[in-house]
Every structure is written in structure tokens, then in C-alpha cells.
Records
---
Amino acid sequence: MSTSGILIVVMAVLFACGVYAMLERSLTRVLIGFLLLGNAVNLLLLIVMGQPGVAPFFGEGSGLAGEGGDMSDPLPQALTLTAIVITFAVSAFLLALIYRSWQLGQADTVEDDDEDIAVRERGIDAEDTMDDDEEEDESIATDFVGVDTTPVTVVPGLVDDAPLDRPKGGDRR
């Protein structure tokens, strides 16, 4: 197996472990999963970068755009730096969430609240009956024309129907 093949397998394992860890209720495991996903993305960007060990703008044919040469694509390198910064920022935010959760409840697991439990227990039949309870009123106007509660009122005499005579060339006197 080549070096790229090994990196692809490692990247796939990191993605799989990261997604599995992020599906847990523990915020610490979510953080670990996010870090694994961040490293997998960095490996993905390094794999698509091109030949390893080659500078992005230096090599044979680096002067002409049409010539091929031993060059590496610089865009994945820039994206890798951006991915590192984003992973660091989101990890710091998750660490703050974990710390605050530990301060408030001495646990870092996300628990269901009463509304989540009520929504889970409500079945499809309850949603169908809720849809049937709502009766549509046919007399409701949708365009507000001729209604006392019109959002925009036009006062007669303030609006002139004649076109405005403005001098051309941006000169407004």
C-alpha cells in the first residue's frame, strides 16, 4: 500500500471515530470527536495537495502557467491553516461550554428537559389532531387592499402622480 493509501485509511478511521464520538451526550466526547474530525480534515487537505515535499511556487515550470512541473497546489495549504484556526476556536468554545456545564451541574452530559420529553412522547396521531384543529378562515384578506388595517396609508394630496422633473447629470437644485 502506498503512502497516500495509508493516509486515506487513517483519514477514514479518524472521520469514523470523530463522527461516532460526536454522537454521544457527553460534551467531553463531543470535543474529542470534533478534534478527530479536525485532524481528519487536515489530512484530507494534505492528501489533495499534491506531491509531498514540493514547494508550492518553486520548481520546474513555475514561471509559465501552461507548463507542468513538480509543483504543489498552494490552496490546500491555505485551507489547512484555516482549518487549524477554526478547529482551535471551536475547541476553545467547547472547552468553555464543558467548564460551565461542570460548574452548574457537576456533569458534562446534556440531559433532556421537559419540553424534549413531551415532544418525544407526542405521537404522530397527536400531530394529526393538531393539524385538524386549525381551521382556515376564507375571509382573511392577504393583500390588505381596502381594509381598515392597511399597513401603508396614502393621504390624498401628498402624493403627486406627475413625474418628477429633475435636471439630468446629477444636479439637484
---
Amino acid sequence: MRYVYFLMGLLLLATAGLFSCKKEEAKRPNILFVLADDWSYPYAGIYGDTTIKTPNFDRLAEHGTVFSNAYCSSPSCTPSRAAILTGRYPHNLGEGVNLCGRLMHDIPTYVQILEKEGYSVAFDRKGWAPGDFLKMGYTKNPAGDSAKLGFKPFLDQLPAGKPFFFWFGTNDPHRPFDLNAGKQTGIDPQKIRLPAFLPDVPEVRGDVADYLSEVERFDREIGDLLKTLEDAGQLDNTIIVVTSDNGMPFPHAKANLYDYGTRVPMIISRFSGNESQPKRNDSFVNLLDLMPTFLDWAGVKQRPETDGISLVPVLTGEKAVHRSEVFLERERHCLCRAEFDYGAGYPMRAIRTSDYLYIRNFRPDRMPAGDETIPGTPSVYGDVDGGPTKIYMMDHRNDVAIKPLFALGFDKRPAEELYILKDDPYNLHNQVSNPQYAQIRKDLQSRLNTWMKDENDPRLNGGGDQIDTYESTTHAWITRTGIIFWDK
């Protein structure tokens, strides 16, 4: 690999101060938050993927810290973005727990706080979404003022000396993809390290290649943003955070608590004028940790309660380990089950450690991928994004080689799942009934229950049905080929 990771502790100490926010500093840092849409770990050069080229993301690594165990709070756009904005677990956000749910205006966000602290806060393209923020007491997107003309005009109009927070939310690599874009941009489908939960056939390899072409396009936009900062003379005083809201839009990934649904790339970088080797941190990060981190960088003292933990002590070398585990959750993604007037979700909770992934499915009688069809709607397995891979797997579900993979991505699941990660990085083989792991299962179950109790999770002890009754601000239906939105 081009980059060599040094011992974490020494390297973090070497860069201590790059991310600190001492009160006596006259100039508070700018923050550029770059958020991809459906980008899974490990699809970047810095993580060892040689199929695609991500030179700009990799360049950021030379000036910051690469996180190899970053996870979204929920593998679904709206609740993940709401958790980032508030620093709260989605189940603590009321109706904000669901896709297209309501993030109520009285729940504090870092946007509201930073604006009060004198920051200019804006976003471009996809902010908090999908959903109708006008139905929630907001007059503008929860991610800030809309910078419809882009990042450069925003900087050009920024008052001298005023710090900014800018959210750049690309739609890449979200579906739909341009057909054959991967081949046209030089990605060889045969060289792709295909996740083992997907069929190894040309149709699927081509679909993944098209997905990776959008990752490369996203990387080019990172380069454009860096050049804009350089041209404006703002690069040295800007902290840059790049990550994704959730994982890749394929079966067994997005909208699931498996690693390819929740584990995302993340780099935090600040240019100091001197390039160095990238620093790697392998401890766990939940993206809701970004909110208190942003407030620390801005020097905010009066702040609301959050579930997130600031990353600043790790970035400055005061701590070597951030979290030793993460807790993950999911409720309703799309409207794809007939119960509760189409409101029934698929509630899950999980604990992910270095060695294990333990998942609780609280309504195992429901279809995790959604019902195959719902009369009177266009929904088709509505929690799996439509496209060539979904079409192929549906059409070949009874083929001997495809049947077990279709079951992993679409069929019902037991109430508990346990995966041994060193043997099963793609979360294919549920070991929850294996007596060899009985004590591990018991321990993880206990830790998950303790977290749910401490966090006032409504799903504890079988509750939480009110979550299925929350109305959507807009309707989203996923078909075989795509997604349809309409306002009720």
C-alpha cells in the first residue's frame, strides 16, 4: 500500500494541536463537512481498495486522521443525518427516528448553536433529507441556509473574519447509477472485490462498477472543494470532515445493521503546510459524535445534552481510544409493509465490537426487506433499493447459486443474530445458536439491554409500537428499478 500507518499513539501526539480549540485562539476554525450518500467502507484507496482511485480523499489523509471503524447511527438517510445534526441516537428524536420523519425544531442542532455563536452556517445539495422540513416548524433545511449557487459564491459573500460551517452533501453514490459508467471510466468489473453477499455474475459486477464510478466522481468533487478553499485563502484555517450517511444501496447492506450498511469511511483533516504520513485510528466512532466535536472546535461552552462523545481528545492525542464498541439501530426505512397503514418498519438494535456483531430483530414476523408487493402501491421489496442487482436477484431467486444469497438479503430473519467477524467479515453465518458462543451471546445481549435501558429506548421489553404509527412528511416507495416520492 502507498501509505504506511505508524503507531497510532506516536503519530497522534505528533499532530496534537492541529484540532485543538483553545479559548485564547482569536480565530476560530472554519469547518467543511463533506457528506457522501450511501458510501460503504472500504471503498477508497486509503483503505486498500485498488479498484478505484480516490486521490483527493487519500490526500486528506496526509493531513489528518483516518478512521477505520466509523459507523452511522442508523443505515437510513433521514435518521442518520438527524443524529449527526443533534448528537442524539435516532430513537431519542421522537418522529425523527424514521425515514422522512419529523425532526422537531425544538430539538437543538449544532446549526442552531453555531449560528448563535457567530458562525455562518449553510449547505449545498442534500442536507437533512429526505422529508418536508416545512411541516416541522423549520423555515429552512435543518442543515442551514441553502447555498444554491455553491461553495465558491458562499465564500465570496462571507464577511471578513467570520467563521463558517459548510455542509456539502453530494448525492453520490446514491442510486440511480448511469448504466455502464464504471466501464466507461476505466473500472474493470472483473477486478472488483465483490462482497460475498452478492451474486458473482456480470450484471451485479457491472452494477457495483457503476456504483464505484460515483465514488470516484464524489472524490473529484472533494478536489474541487479543496481548490476552492485554497483559492479563497481559507484552507489552513478549515477543518475538513469527510464521511457518509450510511452504506451502499445493495441487498444486505443499506437499511441493515450489517457492516456494509453501517460502516462508513471517515477522515478528519486540517492542513498545516507540512505533509506527513496518514494517522490511523481503529477505535470506534458513531457519527453522532460529530455534533459535540463541532461544538468543541467552535469553543461552545453552553450546550444541550447529547449522546455523542467529542472526538477532540483523540485527535489531539489526549486519548488513544475513543469508543470500544458502537450501538446501532433502525426503525422504518421506506413504506413497504401493509400493517399500521403502511407505517410498519423493521425495528433492529445492534452492538458492534472488534470481534462480534450482535443484532436483535424485534419484529421477526415481518419481512426485513419489506413485503414483496403491497396492493395499491408501487412498492416491491421496498427496503431494498431498486436497480440491476435487485432485479437479477429477484428474477433468479430460485437458482441454486442465488437462493441462499436472496435469503440473506430479502427473507425473514430470527430474533437474534451473532456474527464472528474474524471468520465472517460479510456477516453471512449466524452463530447465535452455536453453543460454542453461548456465553458471548449472553454477554452481548446483556450489554445491548443495558444500553437500551440507559438510553430510554422504547423498544426495550417489547415496546415501541408507537414508532410505527408516526406519519411520514412525504411518502417514499421503492420499486424494482428505483424510488418514487409523493406528498400525501
